[in-house]
Inverse folding.
C-alpha cells in the first residue's frame, strides 16, 4: 500500500501514490517472471483445504491461454501447491473506511479484497488518508458508499423503511 501526504505534506500526493502503485505492479510482474508463479484458483463456496489436481489443471489451462506452450510438460497430478482462503464479501467489493468500534471513533479498515488486493490497496490507502486529513476524496462519493464498511447495515435499514437504495 502506498499513500503520500502523511506525515509529510506533498502537494502531488495523489499522483505519487498512483505512480507508486504502478511501479509496484511492474515489480510484481518481474517477481512473477523470476519465480515462475503460475497463478491461483478462486473457487467461491469451495472450503476444501486440500491441494487438488483439478485446480492445477484449471491454472495450467489459463496459463496456456496467456502464454501458449508455457504449461507444456507440466502434469497437474504431480505439481506441488498450497491452499489459502481470501476474505471476500457477497458484493465482491472491499471494505474501506471508518469502522464502528465500541471503544470510540478512529478505527479505519481496508480489507476483504478477495483476489483484487493489488488493484484496491493503493486506492484504499489514498481514500483513508484523504478521510483522515479531511481532504477531497480521490474518488466519487458513489464508490466511497460502495466500499463503506456499514453498507450492508444501511441497505438492510433502507429495506425496512422503504427508502431508495
Amino acid at each position: 500500500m502506498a499513500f503520500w501526504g502523511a506525515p509529510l505534506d506533498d502537494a502531488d500526493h495523489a499522483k505519487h501514490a498512483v505512480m507508486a502503485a504502478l511501479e509496484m505492479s511492474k515489480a510484481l510482474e518481474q517477481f512473477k517472471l523470476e519465480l515462475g508463479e503460475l497463478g491461483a484458483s478462486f473457487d467461491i463456496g469451495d472450503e476444501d483445504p486440500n491441494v487438488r489436481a483439478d485446480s492445477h489443471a484449471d491454472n495450467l489451462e489459463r496459463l496456456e491461454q496467456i502464454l501458449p506452450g508455457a504449461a507444456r510438460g507440466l502434469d497437474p497430478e504431480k505439481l506441488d501447491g498450497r491452499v489459502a482462503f481470501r476474505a471476500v464479501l457477497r458484493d465482491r467489493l472491499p471494505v474501506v473506511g471508518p469502522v464502528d468500534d465500541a471503544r470510540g471513533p478512529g478505527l479505519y479498515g481496508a480489507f476483504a479484497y478477495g483476489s483484487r488486493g493489488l488493484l484496491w490497496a493503493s486506492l484504499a490507502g489514498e481514500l483513508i488518508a484523504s478521510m483522515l486529513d479531511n481532504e477531497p476524496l480521490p474518488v466519487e462519493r458513489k464508490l466511497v458508499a460502495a466500499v463503506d464498511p456499514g453498507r450492508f447495515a444501511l441497505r438492510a435499514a433502507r429495506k425496512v423503511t422503504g427508502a431508495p437504495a
Remarks:
- The chain has a mean pLDDT of 81.
- The first helix runs from residue 13 to 35.
- Residues 77 and 104 are 52 Å apart (CA to CA).
